[in-house]
Structures are given as structure tokens and as C-alpha cells.
Amino acid sequence: MKVLIVGSGGREHAIAYSVAKSPKVDKIYCAPGNAGIGTVAECVPIGPMEFEKLAQFAQEEQMDLTIVGMDDPLVGGIVDVFEEKGLRVFGPRKNAAILEGSKAFSKDLMKKYQIPTAAYENFEDPQKALEYLEKAKFPIVLKADGLALGKGVLICNSLEEAKDGVKEIMLDKKFGTAGNTLVVEEFMTGREVSVLSYVDGTTIKTMTSAQDHKRAKDGDQGLNTGGMGTFSPSPFYTKEIDEYCQKHIYQPTVDAMRAEGRPFTGIIFFGLMLTEQGPKVLEYNARFGDPEAQVVLPRMKNDIVEVMEACIDGKLDEIELQFEDNAAVCVVLASEGYPVKYEKGIPITGFENFQGKDGYYCFHAGTKLEDGQIVTNGGRVLGITAKGANLKEARKNAYEATEWISFANKYMRHDIGKAIDEA
User: 88 lies in which domain range?
Assistant: First the structure.
């Protein structure tokens, strides 16, 4: 098989790594890819939003499968363009990707189908949002409705902060058109868990659990980022919680989308909050998480291509997902200053330290090849992942491996998975 992957981050590198292990696959292409992906795939200089060019490339090169890693192209309708041309593609159509593309849509869906989530209100008028906040209980959460690179969520502890937040999102348009509609949500407390799943429109099969660390600095301080590290599995995600979620959250979401005439094929990422009242949905994503993919996929025993093809063909019920009985931790190496301002083009060394070391992975996110040298090309530069017999060992291994890589302005959190040691 020939496979095309659309995207250029750490998630796409983790997908490419998994695809490369499939005995079904002879050749992988990635558009646009990055320096690390270039070691397992041929990078093609086509942007992820250039749907017609991508589809033309897939036709000309006779791709057997295209995997869309990123949210923007999915929400924009890349799958519809590919399907219209008779191309096999893994991911939800535009009318299903709205599950991630509009937080207001997903909240209304959960309310209609009684899927547990935080109480909320949607606003298109900033004045009405401000009036509502005058009577609200704090802390409270403000969310830009559309895609905002994982950064469009503000937790406000006072009315003043909330007023500033409404201005930032709806009037100053900090997140662009994503802020045309505002979701105001009750603040939930508890442990966060991410559960990724494969869906074929009817059947859903969940993967092993994970937990992300969104804040830029140790101790969950600093600004929200795209994710500074992850661990898998979550020791807080018990068998009882899983059974509850399967019955009240996972299958009901798939059934609700089908009932709405928006059958979902691809990946649904469930962001959950384990509250005292039980698990509730924080958010949905319509693709693999980043950096969740970097700890979940290395632990998956199945052939990823086989699973994705089963989703496309509506045969997911014939697949039994299997995961290794171990743990994985990913620590993101970022450029100092991320997520605000940071330098690019800084040389990176030490990649050779990962060669031949089983259970250690260096997933590239913001890198590129410049005159034969790999340099930084983004805020989140690399995802250093390591496995271990348990979470404590995986964490120790991952942090040891972060020392194998050097670049000026290297920055990371030092407490990824620390909650595990304290649990």
C-alpha cells in the first residue's frame, strides 16, 4: 500500500511511525511533514488546507489510503473533497468534524442526548454574555466556539477577569472568527483524563487512557499551550469509570451523531473530567490528541492501517484493540518563550542517541531540515517518549532521554506525570 498522511506535527510523526510498522505498507508520504517524519516518509510540500492539490497528488500517485492528522483540514471538509474523487480517506466528513469545530454545537448535542457535561450557555452577543456573567458563580470558564490551537479556553476567577475574557475573545478577536460565538461554562473540578477512540459510524472502540498537561509551566502554572507532555495509562481511570463512560458517554455520542444525520468515522477524542458527581465531557476532538498520540500509539499492538480500514469499511466490530501492559510518558521539549514568542532556526543535536534503543522515541513537532542540519521550527519542538514497566519507570526513562537532546533555549516542564508519584 501507499499511504499519505496530512499534517506536520508530533502527532503526525507518531502516526507515521505506527503506519511504518504495518506489513501492508510499502511507501509513506506526508504533506507537508517535518524533519523527523522525513526519516520514515517522503515529505511533500503541499499545505494541509490545499485540499484540491492534496487530492490531485493522491490521485496521481495512486494512494491507497490518506490519513488526516490535523483538526483544521477535517473541520474544513478535506474528507468530503477526497471522497467525491473516489479516494479512500480516514477521518470524519465536514458535517461530523463539527463535533470539534463548534463547541456550541457539541454542548447542544450533549444537552439534547443527555450526555454528562458541565452546565453552560452560548452567546453571540457580547453584551448578553456580560449581563449573564453579572449573576454567575465564579470561577467560570469561557470558551471560543471554534478552533483555536488548543488555546481558546479561559478560566476566570472573578467578574473582572471574565469581562476581560469576553473582550479578548468576542471583541478583540484574539482567536479570530473562533470567537464569534462564546460558550460560558460552569467550572468543574476533578482529574482530567483523555480517552481516544476509533469510530466507524456505528461502532466505537476506545484506546488506552492518557492525561495531558496543558499549562506552560511546572505546577500547572502559566499560559495554556497545545500540551507540554502526557502519560498513559491514567491510574485514575478505573474499570468502573470505563464501564460508566462506555454506557453514558462514548456509545451515546456515536449514536447521537448518527441520529443527527452526521455519522462519524475516524477518531473521537474524549476530554473527560472525573468529578465527584461522576465523569463528564470537557470537550470533544475529531482527531488524535497531540501529545496524547505520542504515548497511546507506541503502546498499541494492532496494525493501525488495519484498524483504520475497518473504520472506513464499517467493520470495526470485527477488531479487538490490544495495548501493551506497560506505561509511556512523553515530555515536550519546547522553545523558551512558547506559547508567546520564541526563536526558530536553532540547531538541534543528539538524535543519534535514540538509535537502537527500544522503548525510546523522539517525535518531531516543530523541526525542519536546513542545509543538512535539523533546526527548530516551532514552539513545541520535540516529544520525547519512553516506555516503562509502570508509570514511575516510564517517567524516569523519559526525563533521562530529554538529556540526550541539545539545543539553545530548550525548555520543558519537570513535573509531567508527577501526580502519579503522589497518587
Answer: 2-93
